[in-house]
Amino acid sequence: MKKMRTFNIVLALTICLMSCGYFPVVNAADNALVSLKQSGQAFAKIAREVSPAVVNIQSDQTGGDAAELADQDLPDDIPAPFLDFFKQFDPNGMQFPQRKQNVIRQGSGFIISADGYIVTNNHLVQGATKITVKLLNNDEYVAKVIGTDPQSDIAVIKIAAKNLPTVRLGNSDQTEVGEWVVALGNPFGLSHSLSAGILSAKGRSSVGLADYENFLQTDAAINPGNSGGPLLDLEGEVIGINTAIFSRSGGYMGIGFAIPINMAKTIIDQLIKKGSVVRGYLGIKIQPLTSDLAASFGITDKRGILVAQVEPGTPADKAGLKQGDVIVSLDNQPVLNVGDFRNTIASSDPSTKRSLGIMRDKKLTQIQITVGNLDANGKAAKSSKEEPHAITKMGISVQTLTEDIAGKIGAKTGEGVVVSSVKSGSLGEFAGLARGTVILEVNHVKVNDINKFIATVDAAVKNPNAVILLLVQDSQLGTRYVAIKLG
After folding, report:
1. pLDDT at residue 74, as a whole number
2. In whole angstroms, how large is the CA radius of gyration of the chain?
3. Residue 123 falls in the annotated catalytic set
4. Does 153 participate in catalysis according to the annotation?
5. Which segments within 135-227 are labelled E, that is strand?
6. Which residues of the chain have pLDDT under 50?
7. Among 153, 219, 233, 474, which one carries the catalytic annotation?
8. Which helix (H) or strand (E) holds 12?
9. Rounded distance, CA 420 to CA 386, Å?
10. Among 89, 215, 263, 391, whose Cα sits 20 to 30 Å from the Cα of 247?
11. Residue 252: per-residue pLDDT
């Protein structure tokens, strides 16, 4: 009874204090409103602090046909529907007038130093006859190009100014999927627009937008004109350079890509100091190791990446790396995907010694290799003639390379056969074969002419459940292995 009286007294005092305002009642709706206000205040703070360091860039392209200039806005062989932000298109499908005229690309950039260095995209300023930079306060400057790197789509330009506001560069490695991010730029010429979203994914590679990819993916609204602008975290620090969108309409569809700032920092430094970028290379073509490919090579664990080609005379060739080797480790660290491996080698200083763990003939061995200096290699061609031959089970037709075809696709006559057609819905199409793909090997047997190819395939297809392993080459993806299941 005494306990009950005590409880009633405490309850009465609590009600009295609450009614007097000592214990304010806070419901779920109030909490949600407070949270929304705090988010809005965070975005507003970013806009206030960062907008002065974000610039509008106009790039004049003069002296070419309008259609030619518009085509130059996209990197070579860019896969639809990935679009950069400056593609000139006519929704009605009309042709561009074939006359000399100016084309103006508009985009964004951000100031990284008070003396006028600005980071943007290479495809915005490449080939420009004049670059105009406009600040938030409407001051305008003519910029000069300090350095460009088409392989990563990064460029640095400079304006003659001092005491400029600057951005802070963050750490893209520390950002996590699901965190809030903010895009700042000039979509459709609308100056200093801010949009917010989340970081949707990290490490997006094999997108086909640049040679070296490790993109951040975001659903923050970015549109034509945002390209080259910053992607920011809630601290207002730059974690990426907005570069491209996935779109079937030319506008925002919820998927945008940004170059991670940690990847960009080294490139930016080299562009400022030397005007160009020096990369390490091994001289190999690599591809992911799928389950089918692993089985074809007799490997039970599909971790690692597959060496599809070793260029003669390169560091890889000199170190003894061979076609068909599976790289499972780099300096005793597991190799998990093609993109990370390629980027790590590219960021290595030439002459650096690296250790590769490889699987060859089902045995693990270590190879010591000295990283080389990246250089472009040309391709030659010879002549040959042959009528197309249909491979029904794969749904493709092939022929020996003629001099004319080899020259157009950058292949070597006498090394493989070329796919002349692919049937829609066939095994060949499903495996990624296309018109112009060169088949170099069938089940590890080199096929230097059409007769050798036919004989090797005929022997393989006798087993209705066979897996045919092809070594193929094309202009977009280079040399790689393809496994086709017949059954």
Report:
1. 35
2. 28
3. yes
4. yes
5. 140-149, 154-158, 168-169, 180-185, 193-204, 215-218
6. 3, 63-100, 209, 375-386
7. 153
8. helix 2-19
9. 11
10. 263
11. 61
Q: Quote the pLDDT of residue 356.
A: 94
Q: Quick one: which of 69, 64, 62 has its CA closest to 128?
A: 62
The per-residue pLDDT for range 429-457, each reduced to its tens digit, is: 888 888 888 898 988 888 877 778 888 88
- Catalytic residue selected from 59, 123, 149, 219: 123
Q: Give the number of C-alpha atoms closer than 13 A to the C-alpha of residue 231, restricted to the C-beta side.
A: 34
User: For 163-172, b where at least 16 C-beta lie within 10 A, e where not — what string?
Assistant: ebbbbebbeb
DSSP per-residue letters across 167-184: -EE--GGG--TT-EEEEE
CA angle 189, 69, 204 (to 5 degrees): 70
The CA distance from 15 to 48, in Å, is 45
Which residue reads 């490919």 in tokens?
293
Nearest to 48 by CA among 221, 184, 175, 196: 184
Q: What pLDDT sits at residue 86?
A: 35
For 281-373, the fitting CATH number among 1.10.10.10, 2.60.40.1180, 3.40.50.720, 2.30.42.10 is 2.30.42.10
Q: Checking DSSP bridges between strand 237-246 and strand 230-232, what pairing results, if any? A: antiparallel
Alpha-carbon distance of 306 to 337, in angstroms, equals 10
Helix-strand-coil percent breakdown of the chain, rounded to 5? 25, 35, 40
Cα distances (angstroms) measured from residue 284 to each of 148, 279, 473: 25, 14, 13
* Cα separation, 388 vs 375, whole angstroms: 36
pLDDT tens track for 309-360: 898 888 999 999 999 999 999 999 998 888 788 888 888 888 889 999 998 8
Q: How far is 369 from 192, CA to CA, in rounded Å?
A: 48
Is 444 a catalytic site residue? no
> Do 190 and 235 form a contact (C-beta atoms < 8 A)?
no
* Cα–Cα distance for residue pair 33/216, rounded to 1 Å: 30
Sign of the Cα torsion 456, 457, 460, 466 reads positive
Q: Please state, as a whole number, how many other Cβ atoms lie within 10 Å of the Cβ of residue 259.
A: 27
**C-alpha distances in angstroms, 243 versus 119, 276, 298?**
12, 20, 40
Instruction: Compute the distance between CA of residue 356 and CA of residue 321 in angstroms, rounded to an integer.
Output: 9
Considering the candidates 227, 247, 384, 420, report the single residue annotated as catalytic: 227
Looking at 2.40.160.60, 3.30.70.260, 3.90.1150.30, 2.40.10.120, the CATH number of the domain 29-277 comes to 2.40.10.120
CATH 2.30.42.10 fits 389-485, yes or no: yes
Task: Assess contact for 232 and 179: CB atoms under 8 A.
Answer: no
Cα–Cα distance for residue pair 478/206, rounded to 1 Å: 12
The DSSP annotation for 242-257 comes to: EEEEE-SSSS--S-EE
Per-residue confidence (pLDDT) for residue 290, from 0 to 100: 84
Domain boundaries defined on the chain: 29-277, 281-373, 389-485
Secondary element (H or E) of residue 387: none
Look at the block and give the residue holding tokens 């393989």.
460
